[in-house]
Specification:
The chain has about 160 residues and is of the alpha/beta class. The chain contains 7 helices and 7 strands. The strands form 2 sheets. Strands 1-5-4-2-3 form a 5-stranded parallel β-sheet. The chain has a two-stranded antiparallel sheet with strand order 6-7.
Length: about 160
């Protein structure tokens, strides 16, 4: 009879080829991730609430992209202009949530880095404008307001939130 240890049995499994982190390491990592990121659903919920959400949303894309669609109430501040214009547009005491196109774009990461280097508290909005629109949240274009039906692959169609 050949005995296999759990390590040998999982060595062929690509998920467990590298063992999971310890619970303490995982808690530190995921806690840090939440300090750096917010998702579109949480941002939309905070913006829809009564009163000041306690943060400002910054769209770091080009003017053409902004005109195509942006989060209502967002500040338009393209990444390349952050060093020269952030102080005139943003209060350093108010946290910033930066976004760009979507998960395939690291523009929001570059914008968040530029803002952090200037001393702003900043989070990146995961999913960017793409997921804002795909999850069915209203947005503004150069022509006015718009809203699309939620994509059932990204958001529950008949529920206020995903329950996560």
């Amino acid at each position: 009879m050949v005995m296999t240890s759990p390590l040998t049995a999982t060595a062929v499994n690509s998920v467990l080829r590298v063992p999971p982190a310890s619970p303490a390491e995982a808690a530190a990592y995921f806690g840090a991730s939440l300090a750096f990121h917010a998702d579109v659903s949480d941002v939309a919920s905070a913006l829809a609430g009564d009163g000041d959400p306690g943060f400002v949303v910054v769209d770091s894309r080009s003017t053409a992209s902004w005109d195509q669609g942006h989060v209502p109430g967002a500040v338009h501040l393209p990444t390349a202009l952050i060093p020269g214009q952030a102080a005139a547009l943003l209060d350093p005491a108010v946290p910033v949530v930066a976004y760009c196109w979507g998960p395939g774009c690291n523009g929001a990461t570059r914008a968040a880095l530029a803002l952090a280097q200037l001393g702003y508290q900043v989070k990146e909005m995961l999913g960017g404008f793409e997921y804002w629109a795909r999850e069915g949240f209203a947005f503004e274009t150069w022509e006015g307001g718009e809203q699309r039906a939620a994509d059932p692959l990204t958001a529950p169609v008949d529920a206020a939130d995903c329950g996560c």
